[in-house]
Amino acid sequence: MQIATKKYQMFIDGEFVDSSSQETTQVINPATEEVISEVPKGTVEDVRRAIEAAERAQKGWAKLAPIERAAHLRAISKEIRENVDDLARTISEEMGKTLALAEVEVQFTADYIDYMAEWARRYEGEIVQSDRRNENIFVFKQPIGVIAGILPWNFPFFLIARKAAPALITGNTIVIKPSDESPNNAIEFAKIVEKAGLPKAVINIVTGSGRVLGNELSANPKVGMVSLTGSYAAGAAVMRAAAENITKVSLELGGKAPAIVMDDADIDLAVKSIVASRVINTGQVCNCAERVYVHERIAEEFIEKIVKAMEQTKYGNPLVDRDIDMGPLVNKGALESVDNQVKRAIAAGAKLLTGGKRAGDVGYYYEPTVLVNVTNEMEIMQEEIFGPVLPIATFSDLDEAIELANHCEYGLTSSIYTQNIDVAMRASNELQFGETYINRENFEAIQGFHAGWKKSGIGGADGKHGLEEYLQTHVVYLQYNQGKK
Q: b/e map of 40-79 (b: 16 or more CB within 10 Å)?
C-alpha cells in the first residue's frame, strides 16, 4: 500500500514556512523505495533570513541566566520522551534504521539534552594572578553568537541535540541544516521546540541542498561557528567557505576504525563486539569498526566465527519486522558505492567469504560481507566503506598491528582486544586516534569527548570539552585604587 506523502515546512524565526523558491525535495524510504515526504528546497535567501533571526534572538537568549536556559532544554527533552514511538518511526522510515535502534536514538537524545542542561551551574571562567599590584585578571567564558549546525543522515535526530544543546546552554542560538536524506525528523524536532515554548528563533531549521545552504551557513559573516558532522569532502568545503571570515569550525568527519585482535583475546567477545559494531545502522557509523587486524595464531578460528556471525545477521524492513539486526542502506547511491568497493577489492586480490552482493530487488539492502587476503594498501582498507562489510588482515606482533592501524589518513576511533594490560596501555599510547576502545564495541559516552585526529576532524563533541567548543574567552584586566575612599 502506498503511504501518503507528507508535506513539511522549514522552521524559521519561530514559524513554519515554505521556501522562497516554492520548490521541494522528495524523501524516499530506503526499505521500499517509495516517496514518503516533500520538504522545502531552501535558498540562500531562506538561510540568510534564518541567520538574521538567530542573530536577533541571541542577544535576549544570552541575557537569561544559564539555569533559565536549562529549564527550556528540559522542557524539550520532556516532550521528546513523550513522543518516542512516533519519532522513532519517522527516523526509521526515512533512513532505514531498525526501530529498536531508532528508539534508542530518541531516548539518548533526550538524555543528552538533560545532560547538557546540567552544565548550567558548572561551566566557569577563571581569575588569574596578575604581575601588577592592585590588579585582577578575569577570564570570562562568553557565547560565540550564531552557530550553524550541518548534519548527516545516519544519526539525524541525536545530532540535532549534539549541536543544539551545548550551543543553547552556553547562550548561543543555532541554525540547523539536516541532511537531504533525513530531514523529516528535524521538522518533527521543530514541532517539539514550538510546543515546549522555546523563545522564537533560538533554534531555526532549514532544509535543502548542502552545496547551497551549507556554503551560505559557512560563508556568512554573521555566523560565529560552523559545526559539521559529515564526510571529509564536506568538511574541506566548509573550511574553504569559512576561511574568508576566519569563522571557527568544528568538524567530525570520516573514519576508518581499525580493530586489533591479539592472540590472547577473548575471541567470542571480539567477534560479538566487532560484528555488532559493523552491522549497527547497516554499517553506516563513522566510529565503528571498518577494518580488522587479527593475530595470525588465532586467525583461522576468529575468521570462521566471524563469518558465521555475519551470516546469521538478520535484515529487513524496519517498519515491518522488529526482529532484525539491520535495515537497508540509506539510498541507491550508497548501495552502488558499497557494491563497487567490494568488487574492486575482489579484483585487486581479496577473497570473498560471505555476502558481496545486493539482497533482493526492492529496497537498498546489502548482504553482510567478509573479505580476507586483503593488503593494507587496498582501497577497502583505506577508504570508508559505510556498509556491512568487514575486510580482515593478519599480523604477527603488536608492532606490526599498530603500524598497520596507524597507516591511514583517518584517525577517529580504534579498538583492541587483549587480556594483557601492558599491550592495552601500549596501544592506548601509540594508536593515533581520538578514541580507543578496549575489549568492547565502538560507542562513545555522553560525558566523554568524541574527536578525530588527522583527516577525521577538528574540535570535538560531548562532555566538558565538547561544551567548551561553543564558548569564547574574554579576558578583563581590572586595575583598582587601593587607597581609602
A: bbbbbebbebbbbbbbebbeebbeeebeebbebbbbbbeb
